[in-house]
User: What shape does this take?
Amino acid sequence: MHRLFKHKISSAWLLAMLSFCPFSLQAIDGIMLNAGTGMDDSLIQSNDTRGASQVSAGIFWNTETSYKNAVIGYGELNIETYFSHLKNKDSLNLISVRPVITFWGDESKERLWFWQAGIGLAYLDSKKFDSIILSSHGQFSTLLGLGVALDEAKKHQLTLRYNHYSNANIKLPNPGLDMISLDWSYQW
Assistant: This one.
């Protein structure tokens, strides 16, 4: 019964996030799927989650907002929301909404590779994942990624992403949770 209650909470959270998103469901611009693994404590998280698996599915909206900077290049802003399931000794489900900027170099987007950065909000249905004990269900969701377009129209993309979840020391302890993932996205 406890597991069913958590599933209903996660489903309710997903529906709430989608209904408050500034874009309608009819305006979805693409889908994304990923598979990932936990990391050791060499970056930000304070404990080891190697061996953990992550699978995610999500949708994204193209805001048609772009940025141009002499140092970091030309970037386009998308808003993504996704559901992830993490499993190792413990299981954890999360839902996240985050703006992501994809940097192509210049407006022509001639090169096939890009890099990404994003920060948003996540809700985790458990505060415990293996040896990591988080102090809150609400976390910030950050990413850095390096990707490549798989076709000339750049509709299919593959991205290697570093994902970090933490509450930015709003409440202690804040051990963080790090995952590395391979993301496939398709934009129609």
